[in-house]
Amino acid sequence: MENEAIFRFYEELNDFLPTRDRKRSKVYHFKGNPSVKDAIEAQNVPHTEVDLIVVNGDPVDFNYKLQKGDRVAVYPVFESFDISQLKEGGSRGLRQTRFILDVHLGKLAKLLRMAGFDTYYRNDLDDREIVERAAEEDRIVLTRDRGILKNKLVKKGYYVRSQNSARQLEEVLDRFQLRQSINFFTRCIVCNGMITRVGKKMIEKHLKPGTRKRFTVFFRCRGCGKIYWRGSHYQRMKSYYGSLLKNENSR
Q: CA-CA distance, 77 to 4, in Å (whole number)?
């Protein structure tokens, strides 16, 4: 026998719904007593995008079993004020800033690393590896594949909306309120290792003649050994990240 419940998704959760179902209550048909998590994800909304579920006026967790006639309100992650007292089990600790990215987000990985965030990325990672490493290392999954976010092992994640890497960076910074946590030029954009200053004489033999002549201050990655210096690209990116912080301070 098929039952019905009424669902309403709020704010950016509507991004995952067909146009006809956005910003309105909709009837959801189901059999048996599925968990509210399964019901939400059956409507293409990943559980990692959800922070509060209210059924018939009371907050519930993902394990709640859906009942005939339930009225379900589903809210996205709130960052502007504390709702931990409303939620069963309290806050989920969204302030972690260790990321893992899927294969489609290589440019974003470099931008996050340049901003100083611990960002694991390989262009040959499959979904299983992403999910397992995220669980083992308590990393936030960033992806353009909502299927990954539906995996029950994924506790923290975000579906990146934009296809432009600069906009993707701003999305992530705003979603996790990280603009004030930017630590520019402290991580290697190639391997995610930490960068430290190195004496010119120690790496001089690895430099091209022009670079050796024009620059005196150098840095090297502790992981892969890549050498960096403050050239024109450094100055452009420093200005860019500075503007992100300036925009945050002007809000």
A: 26
- Parent domain of 144: 99-186
Which amino acid appears at position 12 of this protein?
Answer: E
Q: Is 26 exposed, middle or buried (0-12, 13-18, 19+ CB in 10 A)?
A: middle
**pLDDT tens digits for 31-75?**
999 999 999 999 999 999 999 999 999 999 999 999 999 999 999
Asked whether the beta carbons of 188 and 223 are under 8 A apart, the reply is yes
Same domain, 124 and 148: yes
Residue appearing with tokens 């069963």: 88
Counted domains in the chain: 3
Domain containing residue 33: CATH number: 3.10.20.30
Q: Which two tokens stand for residue 188?
A: 């290697």
C-beta of residue 230 within 8 angstroms of C-beta of residue 181:
no
156-190 tens-digit pLDDT: 999 999 999 999 999 999 999 999 999 999 999 99
Q: Residue 223 and residue 142: Cα distance in Å, rounded?
A: 23
d(CA 88, CA 132): 26
The answer to whether residue 111 is domain-embedded is yes
- In whole angstroms, give the CA distance from residue 203 to residue 209: 12
| Whole-number Å distance between alpha carbons of 238 and 251 | 21
- Owner of token pair 């909709």: 26
* Residue 87 domain flag: no
